[in-house]
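Suppose you are handed only these lines of text.
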Amino acid sequence: MKRIMITGALGQIGSELIVKLRDIYGAENVLATDIRKTDSPVVNDGPFELLDVMDLENMRKLAKDFGADTMMHMAALLSATAEAKPLLAWNLNMGGLVNALETSRELGLQFFTPSSIGAFGPSTPKDNTPQDTLQRPTTMYGVNKVAGELLCDYYFQKFGVDTRGVRFPGLISYVTPPGGGTTDYAVDIYYKALEEGKYTSYIEKGTYMDMMYMPDALQAIVDLMEADASKLEHRNAFNVTAMSFEPEQIAASIRKHIPNFEMNYEVDPIRQTIANSWPDSIDASAAKAEWGFKAQYDLDEMTKDMLEKLATKMK
Ligand code: SER
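From them, the structure of the protein bound to serine can be written out as follows.
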């Protein structure tokens, strides 16, 4: 039986992951934690505790009292915020991670944390980026992610903690808006398409990045955590992706439903520089081979579902 504790439960991934995990494993077996509390299903529909991930003592106590056997550490600052506040990002992203790993080592928990396409840099091969390749990122977020991947591997090798992770691409969802990411344009665009019929993109046309629809991302986490450990040659972290597109392609996909949709550009140099340093498309074959990763949604299927779900939500 799984008893899962999650940090960053009210964030972009956490708020949907918790609903899915409670469905699979039972609400009482999933402890959601975050630094804040909101009136939301995450807080109201199962165990919830306030936790600042910088507070190791409280983290350890909550995990112990709950009888957790699994830790999913989701609390982190995304790329653009990290670039604006690099020291805070270092302290929070690395401090939170090492506390979650320490808790997992002491209590013998299975461990998951997401890495990112941000763990790659300008010297990484841009197309079909291999699982094992050069990782010299030029953003604070990327520095955190590479250091995090190494730290997770270290805890596995040194202490036998069952650490697992994926390098997520941009994640797109209609539930919780992301905050402070570089790939967020691909979420904002759907809101604006429905609200105003037009969108001004801060990412330049022709800039390819990997993306994935949230249901596929959540399934990937569940599948990786359930995977047979003896089949895992890699651990921290697996390339996963569902699609790669540039702004004009997502606009074209939206026009299949909103024919007059208008796209303009006002490029943000900071986020554009971050995007330029990331791969155009990554190769997920190791994830497919080692634990059967598979994404269901392509760009058009995602667009159709996003527009339908958002339209209902915005009514
Ligand atoms: N979506 C994330 C970001 O843009 C990528 O990890 O920061």
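What can we learn from it? The first strand starts at residue 4 and ends at 7. Residues 53 and 140 are 19 Å apart (CA to CA).
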